[in-house]
Design a protein that fits this description.
The chain is α+β, with helices and mostly antiparallel strands. The strands form 2 sheets. A 7-stranded mixed β-sheet has the order 3-4-5-2-1-8-9. The protein has a two-stranded antiparallel sheet with strand order 6-7. Helix 11 packs antiparallel against helix 12 and helix 11 crosses helix 17. The longest helix has 16 residues. The model has no long low-confidence stretch (mean pLDDT about 90).
């Protein structure tokens, strides 16, 4: 801000940073708006020796890097043309005109470096009341960009109180089919952000009632989502959007439609394929359940399995998480070289025998040391020799 003051440029913080500051919430991304053109912004940053990146000059956006932290600085704009997905914009010097193109009143807030807030549409009052309200006619704003349907419910999940606004909900319901025109990436991002709210269940149920959810995740299970949220809360776990997506009915099959990353698709697959590990957790054989597995995957599969159960055993899950917090995977004390020293040649049989001893060690809760494992190995070798074969 000092750099822009020196250059005589009017700049203000805008959007989420202002909204969250007013609500006493943590601020992550900090965006700045200015009537100055991108070239003037770049020149001011250069004069102040602040690193800049021309991230979106055609849309008026420059990113400044200060102490390793990015700040997006965007020239005021007005929409010239929209098609439901993209907008053609032109630069403006009118703060109200820039505010009018934003989606919700609580996002159209500007503040100068002294904290003086510029609010054209009652966004401060709406933010404090938990009222997510479109700027202008909701149907018109949705027609400009169909993603605003999902954003309406996502912002309600994070900031709303009570039921979402009737006028906005009605417009979303009427235009819900427009969601089908959106890219998988845009739908995915909004869905995961919604599911990351402290309690996304009321917003999801409102989406279902409005006929919106069916265009996002058909045949979803809101009861599963509610149980996952309840279990996370009971266990003191941070909200996990992907784990909640699995509870809602999301599977690896969503990878193509929502353009999930390979990592997220793998996580979903692991959650839906718990196998015997979950059974071992129910029996409180926690070490055996975790051995040679990814601890996070095992945890999430166990949570999902309990969500699907008629009566989730939260105390067992709590003991499992306590065990997991101090879990250090033990190392099997034998190797193939140990078997070869006892006369076993390399090959498939050696691998099978080693696996047999490892399984015995696991089912003994990893207690046998090297000597005990070797003794069990010798016993197994003798059992394999035909009668009269000698020692």
């Amino acid at each position: 801000m000092a750099a822009f003051d020196s250059a005589g440029i009017d700049c203000r913080f805008v959007g989420g940073a202002v909204r969250d500051s007013l609500l006493g919430r943590a601020v992550s991304d900090v965006d700045v708006a200015t009537p100055a053109l991108p070239e003037a912004v770049l020149a001011a940053l250069d004069a102040a020796r602040i690193k800049s990146v021309p991230t979106g000059l055609s849309h008026g956006t420059v990113t400044a890097i200060v102490d390793g932290r990015p700040f997006e600085i965007t020239t005021l704009r007005r929409d010239v043309e929209t098609d439901g997905r993209h907008a053609t914009v032109t630069f403006s010097t009118d703060w109200r005109e820039d505010a009018a193109r934003r989606d919700f009143t609580m996002n159209a807030l500007y503040a100068d470096r002294n904290g003086e807030v510029m609010d054209f549409f009652g966004g401060v009052a709406d933010a404090r009341a938990g009222h997510v309200r479109f700027i202008g006619d909701p149907a018109t704003r949705i027609t400009e960009d169909a993603l605003r349907i999902l954003r309406f419910f996502r912002f309600h999940a994070h900031y709303g109180h009570g039921e979402p606004g009737a006028e906005g909900t009605a417009a979303c319901a009427r235009l819900a089919a427009m969601i089908d025109r959106l890219s998988g990436e845009r739908v995915r991002d909004e869905l995961l952000k919604l599911l990351g709210a402290l309690d996304p269940v009321p917003a999801w149920r409102a989406m279902e009632q409005a006929g919106v959810a069916a265009h996002v995740l058909p045949n979803a299970d809101p009861g599963g989502l509610a149980r996952m949220v309840a279990i996370e809360r009971a266990l003191g776990l941070e909200p996990d959007a992907l784990r909640r997506l699995a509870a809602l009915g999301g599977t690896e099959a969503l990878k193509r439609r929502l353009k999930l990353s390979n990592r997220d698709a793998r996580r979903l697959a692991a959650m839906h394929a718990p196998g015997p590990r979950t059974t071992l957790i129910v029996r409180e054989a926690f070490g055996r359940a975790l051995y040679a597995g990814d601890p996070g995957d095992v945890r999430d599969a166990a949570l999902l399995a309990h969500v699907r159960a008629s009566s989730p055993d939260v105390p067992v899950l709590r003991r499992f998480l306590e065990f997991l917090a101090t879990w250090r995977e033990p190392k099997f004390p034998l190797t193939g070289a140990d078997l070869q020293r006892l006369g076993m040649p390399e090959g498939a049989e050696l691998g099978r025998l080693l696996a047999e001893i490892e399984l015995w060690w696991i089912t003994s809760d990893f207690a046998p040391d090297s000597a005990a494992c070797l003794a069990e190995l010798e016993r197994a070798l003798k059992a394999r020799r035909p009668p009269g074969a000698g020692t």
